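Note to self: keep these together.
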Amino acid sequence: MPIRWTIDHARKRVFAVAKGDVTRAEFEEYLEAMDREQAMAYRKLFDGTDGGTTMDSYDLLAICVRIRSYHRNPVGPLAVVMTGEHAHLVLRVLGVLAAAKRPMRIFHSLKPAQRWIESFEPTMNNAT
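Structure:
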């Protein structure tokens, strides 16, 4: 599976890594897992350095709509790691992510992203 994730309830953190071509179904499964596990308010680190997608505009728009639906509840800080060559693939999704009332940054390497996301206190709110 192109996206692998770990939801750490004790640390209130989600760590995901994308490798290869991520499909709409796979990304939706990732979102569903966070929702099901009540982890949307957790700190999130998404490493897309080795990932990409061939999703079309329709698929990306559907994902954007789904992500926006989660914004009615608290969402935690988000660090996204990706290279410049992959950024153009997900700019629309990143725009939707940035619309949420939460800290968000894009990084080009993992270590600075880890330091930044760990600088936030884990939220005690388990809202999705």
